[in-house]
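Notebook p. 47: complex prediction with BV8.
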Amino acid sequence: MHADHLTRARRIVEDARRVVVLTGAGVSAESGIPTFRGEAGLWKSHRPEELATPQAFRRDPRLVWEWYAWRRTLVARCEPNQAHRALARFALADASRTTLVTQNVDGLHHQAARAEAGETTAPNDGTTLGLAESAYPLEVHGAIHRDRCSSCGRLDEAPGRVDAESADSLPTCGCGALMRPDVVWFGEALDPDVIGASMAAADEADVCLVIGTSAVVHPAASIPEVTRRRGGRVVEVNLEPTPVTGYADVTLLGTAGSLVPALLA
Ligand code: BV8
Ligand code: ZN
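Predicted complex, structure tokens below:
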């Protein structure tokens, strides 16, 4: 990766009044969470159509819960890495300037924001006191640690361990319906407020930083295009070229853990 690419990318970020950031599974790879499409990809043992869809949950809720319970245990063991920390510091430095949007459901950006702000979370309800919300990401595909009732929509911010051994031990709501992970599956609509705020931020941004995403899942993958279309710049960080590379002003090839701190320092 040429140093002049990094210099150019740093200048684009420095000159930007407003910044929107879109992250994908690649930003959490160095924290130990396998990406979706990589060699050890999350989908390897299963195909997305098989598990991350409402049809799969209706057909075999136990199998879907088994996969998510495994992922929850994995995520619970992982820590934010230097890329998450640098992004949180960058967002905290100037609250009104940065909007962080993530496709990830692992909550590592939240953890990094709390760590960088030195805030403590209020006891038991999991909310965070007073942190400038700019350091919190818009989670366009939901959050794996939260449960939602598949019928009445009730949320459970701190669900217990899920026993996916048998269909009879799956979590249920007081209304009698099964609880599900509070994530967006393929074929499901995103929360209009969350994707709306993300697109609005992209439409006002002078630069979109695209970090660790294969940019194949829509509508999230169109966020950088929105910034480009309004005349904004696009800076990409990835191990390899993606559909964004074709229209990015700069693509930095390398790991997020090393390039994001260098880009934002
Ligand atoms: C919608 C949550 C409409 C769940 C996820 C045909 C059939 C069915 C649907 C469609 C179709 N064609 C198009 C669609 C729409 C579909 C879609 O886009 N499909 C794609 C596959 C073609 N989209 C949807 O279904 C969306 N909903 O359209 O609804 C609608 C509208 C109104 C009313 C009703 C319905 C919903 C999509 C959300 C799906 N949920 N996740 C869960 O996590 O279990 S998607 C999931 O995959 C992730 O959240 C993420 O978004 C995506 C994975 O992408 P990445 O994050 O980019 O990860 P990936 O592994 O692919 O890439 C990692 C990258 O990092 C790589 O580039 C790699 O090089 C890089 N990297 C690796 N290590 C590092 C690194 N970079 C830097 N440093 C490193 N160390
Ligand atoms: Zn319910």
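Notes: The first helix runs from residue 3 to 15. The two ends are 18 Å apart (CA to CA).
Next step: compare against the earlier run before touching the bench.
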